[in-house]
Amino acid sequence: MYTVDHIIGNTNHDDALGEAAEAHDSAGTLERVLLDASERKKSRLRVHTEAGTDLGVLVDKPELEDGDVLYHDDDRMIVVSFEEREALTIDLPTETALSTALELGHRVGNQHWDLAVEGGTAYVAVEAEHRIVEDVFSEVLPPGADLDYEFVAKGDVEAAAYDLVDSGLEGFNNRMRDNAEVDRWASKGAFVVEQHPNHPDYLICEMETSRGCAYRCSFCTEPLYGNPAFRAARSVVDEVDALSDRGVKHFRLGRQADILAFGGDGEAPNPDALRELYGGIRAVAPDLKTLHLDNMNPVTITEYPEASREAIRVIAEHNTPGDTAAFGLESADPVVQEQNNLLVTAEECLEAVRVVNEEGGWRPGDEPAGAPGGVPGPNDEYRYGPSTGPDASPRLPKLLPGINLVHGLTGERPETYEHNKRFLQSVYDEGLMLRRINIRQVMAFAGTEMAETGAEIAQEHKDQFQAYKREVRETIDNPMLDRVVPPGTVLPDVHLEYHQDGKTFGRQIGTYALLVAVPGERELGTAIDVAITDHGYRSVTGVPYPLDINAASMNELTAIPGINRSKAGDVVVGRPYDSVDDVDAGVADLSRFAVAGDTAVSIPGRDAPGAGPGPDARSPLGRGD
Length: 625
Ligand code: SF4
Fold this sequence. Notes:
Layout: E1 2-4, E2 9-10, H1 15-27, E3 30-35, E4 44-48, E5 54-58, E6 68-73, E7 76-82, E8 86-91, H2 97-111, E9 115-118, E10 121-125, H3 130-138, E11 146-151, H4 157-167, H5 179-188, E12 204-208, E13 210-211, E14 229-230, H6 233-245, E15 250-254, H7 271-284, E16 290-293, H8 298-303, H9 305-318, E17 323-330, H10 334-339, H11 346-360, E18 364-365, E19 375-376, E20 382-383, E21 399-407, H12 414-429, E22 436-441, H13 449-453, H14 456-460, H15 462-484, E23 490-500, E24 503-507, E25 515-519, E26 527-535, E27 539-544, E28 547-548, H16 554-559, H17 565-573, E29 594-595
Parallel strand pairs: 1-5, 3-7, 12-15, 15-16, 17-21, 21-22, 25-27, 28-29
Antiparallel strand pairs: 2-6, 4-5, 6-7, 8-10, 8-11, 9-10, 13-14, 18-20, 19-20, 23-24, 23-26, 24-25, 26-27
Helix pairs in contact: 5-6, 6-7, 7-9, 9-11, 11-12, 12-15
């Protein structure tokens, strides 16, 4: 066996090596090492060339590239060659191309698939069975969309685009970006946000923070990127700085298997690295409106409880309310856990949920008069009072866990559904909060263990899955939403997106933003503050905050808990009022929703007391606060 301990060069970037490869090819002395999607993301592997030469590759490079030269002398040259990957091509009718492409981007992002959009065509690397890929898209594709498959970039789309521009078709190279390239391009490419149609207000930018994972869950594609490789905190901060200079105010730290592990050894938390990351971001973008994250691994909290608590405190002191840390429990059934290399038991995950609730579940508030003791955070927020109940601040909690559950994994049985329901019920019964429960069926991605076993179990259990999902929505999601977003909670800056059934629907910008419905057809493309009045399973209703009791419509008045049409009629007849205290509202507590006239209000943790925007400032996009 030959041992390869360094890469000599690359035939696609080095003209001399490219010519040598052609000469060896003609002479029949060129040997290729064909790597599949998972092998190419490794820097240490044992392989055979097509001619049978046995090679041990151990190189100081995060991943191999197509064209890398492993061996070269006068008699022979050995180069890396990537297997072709299939891509799904979707031709979109022009009039729906943009909105559909955005929805496609969202779905592809959730699956961690690569997507490129060019003109009216989207290209998606096929990482699962065709049936599954088409299922993922079928709901969003408009009538007339054509599906076809052809070969496209086999590595990172950004790297392929760069190589094409840099060196033309000959330089086209199916490779992944390394962190140095991400760092360089991220800041330099920040100008592109100004070309987005929603720039600057209705736009969130996600900063990639790492790739890869230290663990090997059976269904997951992240380990195909190898062990975790983190960007430096400074480079993420520089990217935020560049974007902030170009008007961006909403940010998400994304693309990570575990935010707690950022800047560490891949497993243990590194609170100092998080402090540098989050503190740096707040320093360069002091006026940011959103700072959210992507994933957190409960096993890190289980294995390193104290360091995890400190790391979560750092995050919650610097992020913005409504942030969600998605936990991959995947299954609470010990049999499924065992057969799929899952990392935490239900009990361990419950403990992780407790920890995030304790350290991150607080709601920002104003320091109460005469009751000093609120803890000022770095962003003029005060951590004061309980997280739930009537005395809690009317803001979303800073950071709550989300739970991901996957069905159809190897070993799944009827009891699996009972295990999962029991786990969720125990979270609820303990008074804890979850921001989101994500229930999915597994997909058999190429390169994962599931690709070998297939996803037949998911098909077989489809009916049971649907009934169970409905039950979770009704018995857990519904009351949980009431706990997380009780009536009177204020959501600042809800961006209004569409009208339906006489209502206007909108969302805040951020991770898993709640869908909010307000009565009446209000101007789209604007943002308003909303006080929540009620909720469904996964969405909420509310009224513009603060509601002017002297001008509110009947639909707005009856949206307030405790006010029926008869009482609303009485309120209207009794106008005008000098104060909401003068209104005979029966059992309704108007003070959480309404004011009389142009009275100014503040939103705890956002506006300084007495400096609230008031009804006149219900807010065209771009209002500074
Ligand atoms: S599910 Fe999470 S922990 Fe498991 S391999 Fe994937 S990223 Fe890693």
